[in-house]
Design a protein that fits this description.
alpha+beta, Arc Repressor Mutant, subunit A, Beta-Lactamase, Enolase-like, domain 1, five-stranded antiparallel β-sheet, four-stranded mixed β-sheet, 11 strands
Length: 357
């Protein structure tokens, strides 16, 4: 990035005014518009000279000879990193976010509410990436007997993430036997990630086969089925793709089609948000800063949220380069913080898996 220190006060003011006008209209701006509307205290001729200097620095460009100027990706980067005053969330915005999650019924419900709310508040497309189940640190594994010989396996992770699965067992397990199984497995599972717990149970199963311990074999098989029934891949939820159609930045139909196809590609979206999982704060990517060509006309603001020490998910907003960064950035950051502090209710799904015994 071009250091900001070489920029004079006048150059900073003109660049900030040009980016603000671009955010407001999405169109090129001339020197007269900036001089009249942004209180720069200099003539339009001086603004025009200053914009020529900024163009030489690679911070602005002129799309057509007779047109005004637009900020480059680098110009917007300087604005976001140095010149922009981030707006604080209002009390009503905080209340809207908190109220939206008052009666969440399941993780899936939480993810869908998150993207709908974030898209509604920003008027851009929103994406949420759930934590990978195999990164969850388990706190407890328990079983509840159901009718017909089925068993409900409940996995409770640190941070409140709870998953449940119905297992079809081949033998009747009394409540007292399930209690013994529960106690035995909870000497092995707590404090381990899903991957670690699977490995430990596999080792114990190998040992139980050598000792021909029927109870251990039965307990470990039930535990294995419960852990294997948990999907590892993160869930991706997208909302607000239609909002992209209304932005002048996506007037090019081919470019819009490529972007919509990207938002429908679960695997690529997972990769898109991977970098966010290790970041200490929000990430702002502007235009061609991102390697995906489909995002060359977009900006993306993303942030990580945490559930427990290792379970991490992320949220992001994707919109035109002219998005209101000062407003969108604190919204994404606050929602990530709110998700980190929230308790996720149990899953509302139940997939049957067969356990032997």
């Amino acid at each position: 990035m071009v250091p900001v220190s070489p920029l004079s006060r006048r150059q900073r003011d003109v660049l900030a005014a040009l980016v603000c006008e671009f955010i407001a209209s999405g169109l090129p701006a001339g020197s007269r518009t900036l001089s009249r509307h942004y209180g720069l205290g200099i003539s339009s001729a001086s603004v025009r000279t200053t914009m020529s200097d900024l163009e030489e620095m690679g911070l602005v460009f002129q799309p057509h000879t007779s047109a005004g100027r637009l900020p480059t990706d680098l110009g917007i980067r300087v604005f976001v990193d140095v010149l922009m005053a981030v707006r604080r969330l209002s009390g009503s915005e905080r209340e809207t976010i908190e109220h939206a999650f008052e009666d969440v019924k399941s993780p899936g419900d939480l993810w869908h509410r998150t993207v709908h709310l974030l898209s509604d508040l920003t008027q851009h497309a929103a994406v949420v990436r759930s934590p990978r189940a195999d990164s969850l640190v388990l706190r407890q594994l328990s079983f509840v007997p159901l009718s017909g010989g089925d068993v409900l396996a409940v996995l409770v992770g640190q941070g409140g993430i709870t998953q449940s699965r119905i297992l079809h067992v081949r033998v009747d397990l009394s409540p007292s036997r399930l209690e013994r199984i529960h106690n035995y497995l909870n000497e092995l599972v707590p404090g381990r990630t899903l991957i670690e717990a699977r490995h430990v149970l596999a080792q114990e199963a190998s040992e139980s086969r050598r000792t021909v311990d029927r109870f251990m074999t039965e307990a470990l098989e039930l535990g294995r089925c419960a852990l294997d029934a948990t999907a590892d891949e993160p869930e991706i939820v997208v909302h607000g793709q239609a909002r992209l159609v209304h932005s002048p930045a996506f007037a090019n139909i081919d470019r819009l089609r490529q972007l919509v196809e990207l938002l429908d590609d679960q695997e690529r979206l997972v990769g898109l948000l991977d970098a966010t999982l290790t970041a200490s704060g929000p990430i702002v990517l502007i235009g061609a800063e991102h390697p995906l060509t489909e995002l060359a006309s977009c900006s993306m603001i993303s942030a990580r949220y945490d559930h427990g020490p290792s379970a991490r998910g992320s949220i992001c907003v994707i919109g035109p380069r002219s998005m209101d960064y000062a407003r969108v950035l604190p919204l994404v950051e606050y929602m990530a913080e709110y998700l980190s502090s929230s308790v996720i209710p149990p899953r509302d799904e139940g997939r049957g898996d067969r356990a032997t015994g």
